[in-house]
Amino acid sequence: MTTKDEDLETFGDTILVTGGAGYIGSHTCKALAEAGYKPVVLDNFSNSNSWAVRWGPLEEGDIGDKGFLDGVMQRHQPKAVIHFAGLIEVGESVKHPARYYQNNVSGTISLLSAMERHGVDKIIFSSSAAVYGTPELPAPLDEECSKSPVNPYGQTKLMAEKIIADFGESYGLGYVLLRYFNAAGADPAGELGESHDPESHLIPRLLEAAHGSGAGATINGDDYDTPDGSCVRDYIHVSDLAAAHVLALGKLENGLKNGIYNLGYGRGYSVKEVLQAVCRVTGVEVKATIAPRRAGDPPSLVADPSKVITELGWSPKHDTLDEIVSTAWSWFSRQSQ
Ligand code: UFG
Question: Quick one: 169 and 294 in the same domain?
């Protein structure tokens, strides 16, 4: 992680990280600690792991709990909040929308209100490419593209974005909204990785298949209007994603009022290409069966990352598919020993 001189004065600040025990949250805590910040993890462990809390204190509880939030704010007096806590499964959101609106929208209002009560005036929000819905063209998406989510998960992310922007307008809250494309890979030093239960994401599922565990590899539809018929995604290494949070924080602490940024590499890989990379990296000839399309899947989602590169100075360090897959495979292999 490189830092700029102007950011040095912020070193040592306490940053409250909701969902800091989760996949992206824990990698971001590591990046924060390496940059000299003090991450405090707030997590209810609904889809995360206590072993991932390694870079600062833990506050176990829920962002919907007002009394708990007041206690956390009083005890730690954070300079800023990075807000990951939320539910993330597209399919589940279609089955149980109430859970998603409760956790992701009401939870965010509860958190923002606590920040307002305690004078915490900066937030970085973990948003998603799901806000774009199904793009009309396969071209890379910039931040101005139309937003029309196709599932409750994406709706909750877009609503939370709008609520945060309203807090910015009315109360002067400084904010950065980061729209992630497909987070993947694992900490190159092997200290952290992805661990969801159940696992629905492509790369860990293919690695399970390579390992001989899990349900076997499936390709969810090969009749899309894409070069090889399978869905195309912009896979971004989780450590590059984490680094963007630290850059955004530095900018907010040095006067940025607000910003919205897509986070991806600007190039997509199909499910079949990811499968080939998994075979290459693991040395296992993974056979996949073709399954029906998965509900709510856009054919292609690729970011235009020009804005985050220009405005935040983001410079990805792990942007090859093979590095993404090989760091994930190292992590997976160690966990399965
Ligand atoms: N897929 C398969 N087989 C599998 C698992 C997934 O073919 O066993 C396919 C999916 O159908 C999809 C692609 O692989 O076409 C990627 O699927 P993931 O589940 O890995 O990721 P998603 O694109 O569905 O979703 C992820 C995050 C969301 C975020 C979205 C934005 O989980 O939170 O990226 O691009 F909104």
Answer: no
Strands 232-233 and 217-220: unpaired
This prediction's pTM: 0.95
Counting ligand 1 atoms within 8 A of each CB, the residue from 182, 226, 293 with the most, and so the one to mutate, is 182
Ligand 1 atom 18: the closest Cα is on which residue?
A: 201
Bridge partners of residue 125, in order along the sequence: 83, 177
Question: What pLDDT digit, counting tens, does each position of 287-328 carry?
Answer: 999 999 988 788 999 999 999 999 999 999 999 999 999 999
Is 6 contained in some domain?
Answer: no
Structural domain includes residue 52: yes
**Residue type for 52, please?**
A
Query: Which residue, by CA, sits nearest to atom 21 of ligand 1?
Result: 201
**Whole-number Å distance between alpha carbons of 19 and 255:** 26
The number of the ligand 1 atom at minimal distance from the alpha carbon of 298 is: 15
